[in-house]
Hints:
Elements: H1 4-17, H2 19-36, H3 45-73, H4 78-98, H5 113-124, H6 132-142, H7 148-158, H8 163-176, H9 178-182, H10 185-196, H11 198-215, H12 220-226
Amino acid sequence: MPDLLPLLGSALVLGLLGGGHCLGMCGGLMGALTLAIPPEQRGRRLRLLLAYNLGRIFSYACAGLLLGLAGWAVASSPAALALRVLAALLLIAMGLYLAGWWSGLTRIEVLGRGVWRHIQPLASRLLPVSSLPRALLLGALWGWLPCGLVYSTLLWAASQGHAGYSAALMLAFGVGTWPVLLATGLAAERVNTLLKRRSVRVAGGVLVMLFGIWTMPGPHQHWLMGH
């Protein structure tokens, strides 16, 4: 069983590096959520946005737990090796996407669109958001928005073969996405500008690809651990 702390750090970095993608996927929703807050609730904007993001991250953790149970069930079978290889390939694809070299990762988002068609109407009914429980529930529903970045991280988390680890890793990944989605005003512009810099995107993409290569089963892992 791998050590949890290094894995949590890796999941956190994956969420942070994918912040630009999250801004594209959920940034519009964050803006709509803010504008939809009734005038008398504007003073509670930050708390409502925090509640929304807590709900979103809770959904990530639940998905991690569910898929982690599947990973745990096959941990001692040949299917575990296939799951780890698939997770490694998706991480490499994620790195290529983050670096701006290949966008094929987004094609797997079609896998979740069937489920999302049933969830979206429920989420729309919660707008405008006027209470913390309402914001929390909205975030929990929007956490199931089809996202190639989330799917890739989810398979990587499940490949650890431990349901609790998988849920914790998805929780850490969700926390990593917070800085961009919670930033407002000038700070948001600065963070967004930083994440859109070519050098930052390429460096982040290469880092994620290296992590994917590390995840791939093979003799290179023994060599890396020896160093």
